[in-house]
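This part of the workshop introduces the protein records we will be handling. A record pairs a protein's sequence with a compact description of its fold. As an example, a complete record with its sequence and its structure tokens follows.

_____
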Amino acid sequence: MMRHIKRRLEWVRNGLFWRTFILLTFLTTASMMAWFASYSIVERGPQAEQLAAQIVSVVTITRAALTHSAPEMRRELLFDLASNEGIRIYPREHTDAVIEPEDNLFLTSLRDQVKEALDEDTRFASSVNGVTGFWISFRIEDDDYWLMLDRGRINRTTGLQWLGWGSIALSLSLMGAAFISTLINQPLARLTAAARAIAKGHRPGILPETGPTEIREANRSFNQMVDDLERVASDRTLILAGISHDLRTPLARMQLEVELAHLSDEARTGIQSDLSQMDAIIGQFLDYAKPSDPNNFTEVDLSAVVAEAVATAGRATSVQVTSHIADNVQVMGIATELQRVALNLIENARRYGMKAGAEFTELEIACRTEGNNAVIEIGDHGDGVPEGDIERLQRPFTRLDSARGQTNGAGLGLAIVNRIILRHKGKLVLRNRPGGGLIVLITLPLRPANKRGGASAKEQTT
């Protein structure tokens, strides 16, 4: 579980989608913050100047109207100003409860410009006697007055409003970033999935040859490569089949001639051994080149396959096998190929896993379930393999004569096993035993209905 979480975190950290998305998000956020800051700084001065001019005009016009109007008309004038213009005039008293407005750059600039145009003694308030508004003092002859304007006339866009608008803009930008990242990542994700399918021995679907020129050319080249690989594999199979037919016919004729020839028993045995070895090598070539179709997979009782291979190995007098085989380990695959895997590996271990000076080869074979996988483990007590050669041992035409005493064959045994295991969506791992010897681990996915299997194991020594 932790390994899966770490893999997901690694993918998020290094994935092209998330790198592109985070980069676009960072650039968008930085651009928006710079724009908001620039706009706030640039528009503060002109807005304060414009609002100050409006306030000065209102105060000047109101003062002039009150000064030049008849005393009996002032009450009607004040009512019209309050009802139509939202301007209220109150006498200013020394006992007024005044609350100063908040101190910020915008209001400071506004006050300075209003005082410069009206009077340095002009006062400002956000509330007078509990009435909230924008209050400005002015004087008519020796009388002081308050002029109150609605807050709506001077209210600027608040930080909360900016935050709301910014959040909407950022959300839209993130949606756009996700869309752009998907457009960039999707063709590469398809290409990666197709490459993985080829690595597992499957033919991927045809990649769409549409979109930008670079993506179109890459997909076209990949599709061409897949066709070429399939043609090469088909030609290889055909060539090897032809070689098998052309070589095995004279081999059979030579075998017959050896039987009929007047040879000593020693010479006949040697020639027959050479002919058998040549026939086995041809068989290895064919096994390595043989294709398999996943559509032909059926349910395979892996427990029975391994048990049969153990029984076959136990008939030899030069081997002692200790087995631990769980019951009813079911996988999907081709039974004959899995039998060949088990027999090849056991025969390999029997031949090359004998400890120096020992009279027989000791093998330990296990078949069990681990999570959603079936595991086959085959170990010997021989000399093992040099650590630097373990990976190379699985390559075709590789023989490690010095490490395992291998002198026969074409070096295709483990390559054939690995090829079959990969076709079954499994994994082959080789490692040295701490006390000496080589351990071969095969992991195969369990049949879906068998994922909770893994019944009791049977232990047997042959």
